[in-house]
Specification:
The protein contains four helices and five strands, in the order βαβαββαβα. The chain has 138 residues and is of the alpha/beta class. Helix 3 runs parallel beside helix 4.
């Protein structure tokens, strides 16, 4: 049985990934770091709800303090963050670069062996920069 952390679980991709992980027999615990809970999560069965651990934060800037996030015995981090390109370049860079790097540092500081990342359409420049700065990538 595997444990996963999903960052960006309320977005289009993160929501679908979280749902697949919750329903899979291969995953025993799914933790999500989010700014808000989804009403959809209330529709899960009791057994599925037991697998989901929701960690709420007012602002994803808290990801920067990587030492405060404790996820021992986790197998994967899935970073599904992505901003909309119409929100401006500063927001796009923060979400698609800085938050991704911080997420990878959370994986590293917790010795999580797998870090997967998807991002929003149109931000290839920032995700490429982030990939260069991820401690998990050689």
């Amino acid at each position: 049985q595997l444990n996963a952390l999903v960052i960006g679980a309320t977005g289009a991709v993160g929501r679908e990934l979280t749902d697949l992980l919750i329903k899979s027999q291969n995953w025993s615990q799914i933790s999500v770091i989010v700014r808000r809970q989804l009403d959809f999560w209330e529709t899960y069965s009791e057994a599925e709800k037991q697998k989901l651990k929701v960690v709420t934060t007012d602002n994803l800037d808290t990801l920067e303090d990587t030492g405060k996030w404790q996820f021992e015995d986790y197998d994967s981090v899935f970073c599904c963050l992505g901003s909309r390109t119409n929100q401006g370049e500063a927001v796009l860079r923060k979400v698609d670069y800085q938050y991704v790097v911080w997420s990878s540092l959370i994986a590293q500081s917790n010795n999580i062996p797998h870090f997967g990342m998807v991002s929003s359409k149109g931000c290839l420049l920032y995700t490429s920069d982030a990939a260069d700065d991820l401690p998990c990538v050689d």
